[in-house]
Amino acid sequence: MDHRPRAAEPLLREVTGRVLRRHRHDAGERLVETAERAGVSSQYLSEIERGRKDASSELLAAVAGALGLTLFDLTREVAVELSRRTAVPVLRATTVPVPAAVAPMRTHRGPVALAA
Predict the structure, then answer these.
(1) CA dihedral sign of residues 61, 35, 14, 56
(2) If pLDDT is split at 50, 70 and 90, which confidence band does 81 have?
(3) Long-range contacts of range 27-30, CB-CB < 8 Å, 24 or more positions apart?
(4) Is the pLDDT higher at 8 or at 84?
(5) Domains parsed from the chain with CATH numbers
(6) Do 83 and 76 form a contact (C-beta atoms < 8 A)?
(7) Please, what sign has the CA dihedral across residues 94, 80, 86, 8?
(8) What gap in Å lies between CA 12 and CA 19, rounded to an integer?
(9) Cα–Cα distance, 113 to 95 (Å, whole number)
(10) What is the pLDDT of residue 115?
């Protein structure tokens, strides 16, 4: 059994911020330009990019949209980056069979008594 300490996994907000910053830099944009189109302050966008703030999905969608991305594009890139850092393979949707219908799990429960 391997007892070496594992490197700490990066936080979701840190990886998300790095992906957003990379796209902004690739587009050659200043922080204030992207923030204005997304409808957020440049200070808040800076905090998000540095991984200091957890942004809501609505805010992430707005920033992603300002960079020409969908929320799906953003989360997919974050997942790929996380998988690289944690050495967990990313499964492709085409390689994982999805059943047409999944039967609900049935459990048997006995009588229930409530204490007063």
Answers:
(1) negative
(2) very high
(3) 27/67, 27/68, 29/67
(4) 84
(5) 12-84 (1.10.260.40)
(6) no
(7) negative
(8) 11
(9) 47
(10) 54
